[in-house]
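EI: anyone free to look at a 269-residue chain?
SC: sure, send it
EI:
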Amino acid sequence: MKNLRFSVLLLVFFLLFSVCSYAAVTQYTNFDNSKTGQGSVGARYIPLSEKRTKTRVQNSADKYDYDLFGREMYEYFPLQLGEGEYKISIFENITANRYRQVKTQNFKATIKNVLDVFKASVQTVNWHSEMDVIKKAEELTRNLNTDKEKLVAIYNFVVDTFSYDYDKINNIDTTYVPDIEKVYQEKKGICYDYSAVLASMLRSQNIPTKLIKGYSDLINGYHAWNEVYLADENRWIVIDSTYDSVLKKSNMRFTMEKNREQYKATREY
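SC: here you go
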């Protein structure tokens, strides 16, 4: 009788353990589509050993590749290629520059408002309301009404407050993604940092802002800047806070809105 009871208890324990283990496994999913209506998709992946992993977000027209740092928590990536059918994939490094695909998913994005893509918190423009830099944006714009007024206030703050970090640009890693809170605390950065901070502060005020990478006639080498949508004027304008900050420190003249013809975008986020 005792043996029977022991066997029953053992069986119950085994079943409970199996159910819990199964639940733990099934709860971990690699992709999150819950925000596709607002213009972003989430990904995460835990490699068997700590290897470099990448995410690719693509449609039939183009593709964007990112380093994937999300393990337990999702990282979110913009759906800047518009509505329609997408494929998101995760790749794990094998050796040198070789990768193998480990996860993939097809999904359809029905974006409620295309401008929402450029208001979201994503890997390259990563922000939330509890950050000091975002609280600063709220402080700067508290008594302002129009998007243009808010843009000018935040733009002036970034241009006046931050300095270009020449040491950082010479030692930057290819996997670098701005930490806007750190940049805000240090009050210095490279063009990628300036653009991420400006975009985050403006997005927190519900102003659609793109982070652009590409080339400018005004700058040598690869560069980053912003495009900001002004709802009152129904147009996007080009803003280069890095360039203007450097000119400001040199007591040179500049204007906030740049000539679009002098900038050539290769990527936008």
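EI: The two ends are 68 Å apart (CA to CA).
SC: 👍
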